[in-house]
Design brief:
Blueprint: H1 2-47, H2 54-61, H3 65-71, H4 75-98, H5 104-119, H6 122-130, H7 137-163, H8 172-184, H9 198-210
Helix pairs in contact: 1-2, 1-4, 1-6, 4-5, 4-7, 5-7, 5-8, 5-9, 7-8
């Protein structure tokens, strides 16, 4: 009996060791994948997708081309994963805000802040705006689905504000598109090293936008 208990205890310990080892290994892999994505985003944004090579990305990051191919199937797959990760991260943040205890106005303002801060990631926003046509059809469709989800999340907040009488009688989807249009081009002109901080830019956008739709003066 004690023999079997001892074996079970050893097996349990081995499982825990294996679990923590694999978790640590997976975390390290994800960190390496993230680093490659960040390096590639800078190179893609600087040179354009067509003029960028895996070798060039490897040289920029001082890594081997083989290590890039270990994590990504191709240059196109690398671009797709950069864009998909950017959209997924934004969606998670927005959905987290919508599940919070904040009221509708606070949720909207926080979402506007989050999107603005994401939009001034110059490299990734430039790729989202200009390089999606370089993707394979299946990847284009997947990103289009993500973008529709993103739009739907923001539109729902506008709809809730309108239905609760806190917003003018504007089309909620038009409001969502208007905000995305205003913010998504900030990467073209905003200088994070200039007089205006990124937080101040986010606050300015939110104030410009919300003061035009809220019925009260708060």
């Amino acid at each position: 009996m004690f023999f079997f208990l001892h074996i079970a205890a050893d097996c349990g310990l081995l499982f825990l060791i294996y679990y923590f080892f694999t978790q640590g290994f997976n975390l390290e892999k994800e960190l390496r994948r993230d680093r490659i994505r960040e390096i590639a985003a800078k190179v893609f944004a600087k040179n354009g997708f067509e003029r960028t090579t895996i070798r060039g990305i490897a040289q920029e990051g001082q890594i081997s081309a083989a290590s890039i191919y270990y994590y990504f199937d191709s240059k196109e797959d690398l671009l797709y994963q950069i864009l998909e990760d950017t959209m997924t991260t934004g969606l998670k943040l927005i959905r987290g805000i919508e599940k919070s205890d904040s009221n509708l106005k606070e949720q909207l303002i926080e979402i506007l802040h989050v999107h603005t801060l994401n939009a001034i990631n110059f490299d990734k926003m430039k790729l989202l705006v200009h390089e999606q046509n370089c993707l394979e059809p299946i990847h284009k469709e997947a990103l289009k689905t993500k973008q529709k989800e993103y739009l739907a999340e923001l539109t729902m907040v506008f709809e809730a504000l309108k239905n609760s009488g806190q917003m003018h009688d504007f089309n909620p989807k038009v409001c969502a598109f208007a905000f995305f249009g205003m913010v998504s081009w900030a990467y073209r002109w905003f200088n994070p090293s200039g007089d205006l901080s990124t937080q101040e830019l986010a606050q300015t956008f939110a104030r410009i936008f919300t003061q035009g739709i809220f019925l009260d003066s708060e």
